[in-house]
Amino acid sequence: MASPQDIATGEIITLNVGGTKFSTSKQTLTWIPDTFFTSMFSGRISTLHDDTGAIFIDRDPGLFAIILNFLRTKEIDLLNIPVHALRHEAEYYGVTPLVKRLVLCEEVEQSSCGDVLFHGHLPPPCPPLIKESLEERRSSVSSIEAELPRPSSTSRVTKSSPRVSHIRHASDSEALTPRHSSNSSSNSSPNNSTSSPPGATGGAIEKHVTESTFSRGTYMDPLRVTLVKGHQNWIGVAYPHFVCCYRLKEATGWHLVWSSPHLEGPVERIAINSKVLSSNQDNTSRMIAVGEGCLVRLWGVNDRDSREIGVFDLRVPVDSLFFIGSQLVALSHLGKVGVWHAMTQNWQIQDVLPITSYDTAGSFILLLGCANGSIYYTDMQKFPLRMKDNDLLVTELYKDPSGDKITALSVYLTPKTTISGNWIEIAYGTSAGTVRVIVQHPETVGHGPQLFQTFTVHRSPVTKVMLSEKHLVSVCSEYNHVRTWSVTRFRGMISTQPGSMPLASFKIVSLEDMEPKVNYSAGNDFGPFGEQDDQQIFVQKVVPETDILYVRLSSNGKRICEIRSVDGSTITSFCVHECEGSNRIGSRPRRYLFTGHSNGCIQMWDLTTAVDLMTRTEEEKPVTGGPTAQELVHLLDQCELTNSRQTTPSVSPSPSVMAANSHRLSLYGHGASFQGEQVSEAVSGIDFRITRF
Q: What residue spans carry the Polar residues bias annotation (predicted)?
């Protein structure tokens, strides 16, 4: 038997790779410089030997055989070979020529311009300046200079001085706290009269203000997109401390129209309305609202200028913010409704019962589901003309027979619905897992809606429900389990013959951080999206830090397409929105998926084309749903699942719209959650932390 020394110095080299023996020449292994093998023979890498003296390498023998064949022949056959796995092995062994070939093979299949569904890219905006008043800057400079050691003639204080570095992080100093002025502009030049010259101590203060503002609580990148909302041909994009508005023009595409000043508090909610009739303006204006804790800030944005309309205090945390017609509505789970009317310029707060869900229909209906099992109705079109003792007309519409908490609501206006809303269908879900459909007939206006049908297929609280022309879709908190039914209609109205028929059952499994960043839940709501008279979709984001989304039909869970970030950046939020068609003949509205990313950019995807392509090739490709087992394992490789980290993901049930905001957010939905019990459960051999009600 040859000794290890003879094997290492001879021409014939025997390798034991993962239990498989390979014999080759030293020249074959070392003709490429600076590889794993040249380092091994030079002694820079320690080697292990088996009982026969062969050099042991603990790697995959199948992939090594392909690499060894390349070293022998300088050729590679990629038929039925996993290119990504082979590239990983080639990088380990340092076989640079093979790595370059494999990288090219991968790049041929991918493009930085996306696939056929990629519709456009909006670069990140420039964040607004953080301003201080002259008095605050002078006070800050004086307080810092008083603590700094006096520089001698041979030394000077620099920005990297340990003393200055300590002062930068003294966040309890009142003089160093940035203040926001209502008339500040994002277009102001940094070279103003209050700025300190370069290299002066004022530069340290300016840097401190920036750092301290973005480091309160959980740190977030100032350009991380947290929310995207759309209305007609406008979208509003929220970042941690400012918001932007973009407008679509028919010939020139998307343009950045407006950017807000820097906001001290984190932006938690946004709402946008591109057509609001105002009393003091001849034309329509665009409005964007921002929720910061208990405050609501409202701006009016036109093509030429913008103005801050006001700052309104709801007195409790704002959980949902949206427009109904020309009225801005803010809701809190604690039982408060705030309404601002564009015509009267009036802000009014109404106390109601604790709100657990809501839905809107058209430009005049607001339904509130409450913890006492009742559904309340408000005709927003009559506000503020019809008021009772200066209060909103909030009337009880229906009471659940079991008195369970109303956790999800969906209103469907039939073709026979008039301006008074006398023919309405409502589906709702409860905390007990029940799904009910109630119908308001013209002849029962004085008696309230009548119970039409009840489903008890869910055993967990229902967190979403959607009633459309053809389908009834419900989601419960158990791994976002979806049940769907086909709806039978007669002349547009729901029919009892033969009634709703079971259609599909599937899951929208979504993992998220146990300690989510601001707006994670609100910015990653998975749907369903779409008009109630059209096919609706789910958007599935499996793990928090990923560049892949799965778009699926809400009726049966079938996969429509897979969206992958064109630049590889993490998708931090998304929104499905339908833009108006152009003035050209034959043009129709198109549905887009807007994805916000960690680097501040917005990417757009054409979902109308995706649905059309899926319909054409439905018979040619296999029916798929969410991620396959192999795709799921690949996604989980990107996500740390150890319980020791705060970013441990949890299977994220979809909540109803409103719930206890004071508890940790761990559910998808409109930004609210119920407090749940943290349990551990093994799923497919992997331990997840799950939130249960």
A: 151-163
The pLDDT tens digits for 386-436 are: 455 556 678 888 999 999 999 999 999 877 655 445 678 999 999 999 999
For 540-556, give the DSSP string.
E--SSS-SEEEEEETTT
DSSP secondary structure letter of residue 327? E
Residues of the chain by 3-state class (helix, strand, coil), percent to 5: 20, 35, 45
Classified as helix, coil or strand, 679 is strand
3-state secondary structure of 96: helix
Provide the mean pLDDT of the chain.
Answer: 76
Q: Exposed (0-12), middle (13-18) or buried (19+): which is 459, by Cβ within 10 Å?
A: exposed
Decide if 305 contacts 280 (C-beta within 8 A). Answer: no
Tokens of 441: 């007939």
Q: Which two tokens stand for residue 428?
A: 């709702």
Backbone angles phi, psi at 563, to 5 degrees: -100, 125
Q: Which domains does the chain have, with CATH numbers?
A: 4-109 (3.30.710.10), 509-693 (no CATH)
Place of tokens 């839905």: 359
Name the 3-class secondary structure at 205. Answer: helix
CA 445 to chain CA centroid, Å, is 41
What is the CA angle 260-261-262, rounded to 5?
120
Does this model's pTM top 0.85? My answer is: no
CB-based contacts of 44, cutoff 8 Å, min separation 6? none
Average pLDDT estimate for 97-111? 79
Task: Give 380's DSSP letter.
Answer: G
Closest CA to 379 of 438, 325, 437: 325
Question: Six-digit token pair at 689?
Answer: 């932390």
Please identify which residue in the block is written with the tokens 């002694």: 43
pLDDT tens column, 636-665: 776 654 333 334 444 444 333 343 333 332
CA distance 235 to 119: 15
**Which residue, among 450, 625, 611, 423, has the nearest Cα to 531 in the 3D structure?**
611
**Spatial CA neighbour of 693 closest among 672, 670, 664, 673:** 673
Dist CA 303 CA 285 (whole Å)? 9
* Whether residue 18 has pLDDT greater than 70: yes
Q: Is residue 440 a contact partner of residue 408, using CB atoms and an 8 Å limit?
A: no
